[in-house]
């Protein structure tokens, strides 16, 4: 896919048309082929772009405006419908092109399995990579009902690739007993239920390191973000999620890529979920793109 080709007709607020000058590239990964409960996250990227129009380009949190950075919205990657293996390779091919241009990747999901090929490509460029994972679910299974390519398995694959001690998980409140045991055995930095306080404790040890940040919208309580495929009660507030992004942005870690996944617009007629997701992406752009 050439970058000038747009699969989605909308672009994120403040996006530049200057690909060459762009410091970061936003792209959508409209895949939900392996979801186990409610499909529909393939419509997330387009709806997040549309919802971005409700927001200002200025962030009072970070005292920064989108005009102060340059980012390009490449639209959605046209994926092979219903074919997880081929779709993941298409994502990997696209991300490799972005990385070869020395641009930061900011991905919009899509189910969480889409993070796996992205991290795999980023890891090739940053062998000392650490991953910050904020989610309701551990996603550390080897398979889901016999299928290794599942939205329940990406962080297991990532842990085995980068090494458990380089994976930091926050906010997890749904997992199997086997996942908990694996997290302990692999020495994963596993912080269930809470996000902000454990982040404050962990970020100093990541200062200066290349970090990939992956956020599942279902880390936020369904009261604040009902539009997701696998809602899990007992989550953090939207305010806490914003605080988490700002903590990472101000921590001194070198964010080399990020994504936000699992927005499923059909389950939120109020549209508060894509509106929240768009605000989170704005803060990630302003906080992570230096």
Automatic annotation (TrEMBL):
Source superkingdom: Bacteria
One annotated GO molecular function: agmatinase activity
Keyword Hydrolase: yes
UniProt keyword Hydrolase present: yes
A GO BP entry: putrescine biosynthetic process from arginine, via agmatine
Cofactor remark: Binds 2 manganese ions per subunit.
Record InterPro entries: Agmatinase-rel (IPR005925), Ureohydrolase (IPR006035), Ureohydrolase_dom_sf (IPR023696), Ureohydrolase_Mn_BS (IPR020855)
UniProt EC number: 3.5.3.11
Keywords, comma-separated and alphabetical: Hydrolase, Manganese, Metal-binding
Listed SUPFAM superfamilies: Arginase/deacetylase (SSF52768)
Cofactor requirements of the protein: Mn(2+)
Entry binding sites for Mn(2+): 112, 135, 137, 139, 216, 218
Annotated family: Belongs to the arginase family. Agmatinase subfamily.
PANTHER family attached to this UniProt entry: ARGINASE/AGMATINASE, GUANIDINO ACID HYDROLASE, MITOCHONDRIAL
NCBIfam families: agmatinase
Protein name from the UniProt record: Agmatinase
Biological source species: Thermoactinomyces daqus
Taxonomic classification: Bacteria, Bacillati, Bacillota, Bacilli, Bacillales
